[in-house]
Amino acid sequence: MALVGACIAAHTPLLLPTVGKENLSLIEKTQKAMQQLEQELYLAQPETLLVITPHGNGLPDAMTLNANPEYVTNFEDFGDLVTKIRWKSDFMLIDRIREDFKLKHLPLVLDSTEALDYGAAVPLFYLAQHMPQIKVVPLVPSNLDVKAHFDFGHELKDEIMSSTRRIAVICSADLSHRAGENSPEGFSERGVAFDEKILGDMKNGNFAGLLDIDEDWANEARSCSIKALAILAGIMEHVNHKTTVLSYEKPLGVGYIVASSKI
């Protein structure tokens, strides 16, 4: 089986010690969970990481695969002018997905951008630091509806399963930005319910339950990640797995989740 693991990773730049500094203690549970996730991912021995990031250059009507031969992650926008890491692309996998999805008339386009957004950069910093030879496939959702992303993930699973490489999927996802009284976008009961729904589905291994969340609900919760999560849900459908929520907290009013799916 080519799929060797999957996870949901928080992507707040505050997780970077050079960025979060004294505030890092506020999200200690999330940091420790990311460190645990890194160990689990390392033991799975993936050769390629498919990173679904909600903060890339998305399009209205198609998902985007970044086909640049090499990527770079840095945190200059957040005040860290030193940390810079380079990653190799799994271009052969990207090209095969492109060809197969073209034949199936699926909504996918290729992009070529060297710099990865922080939605990819933060998880890669934590989860791939001991895998210097790892190859990366960055995927960005679109503005299509949640069901379209679920279906896309289902088709993507076929590509993963037919690959000869060991592939792990990282879904970069912060939950509601209105989950606490100190939320940057204001508190919302629907934001709390949004996080509770996703946490319940993850604890039950019910990825398809995410389809119960419509876009109005996600928009009110101010979650950036429902489309990314829907792609992951499509990938995980009918895959035998054990999902564990390693941490959830919202000390800054934003729901931070870290979860691991062992195949």
Plain-language structure description:
The chain is α/β, with parallel strands linked by helices and 263 residues long. The chain has one domain (3-262): Protocatechuate 4,5-dioxygenase, Chain B (3-Layer(aba) Sandwich). Helix content is 35%, strand content 24%. The chain has eight helices and ten strands. The protein has helices at 17-20, 28-44, 91-103, 118-127, 146-161, 189-203, 215-221, 226-236, and strands spanning 3-9, 48-52, 63-66, 70-75, 80-89, 108-111, 135-140, 167-172, 242-249, 256-262. Strands 1, 2, 3, 4, 5, 6, 7, 8, 9 and 10 form a ten-stranded mixed β-sheet that branches. A hairpin with a 6-residue loop joins strand 9 and strand 10 (256-262). Helix 5 packs across helix 8 (226-236) and helix 6 packs across helix 7. The longest helix is centred in the first third of the chain and has 17 residues, at 28-44. The relative contact order is 0.22.
What characteristics describe this protein?
263 residues, alpha/beta, Protocatechuate 4,5-dioxygenase, Chain B, ten-stranded mixed β-sheet, 10 strands, globular
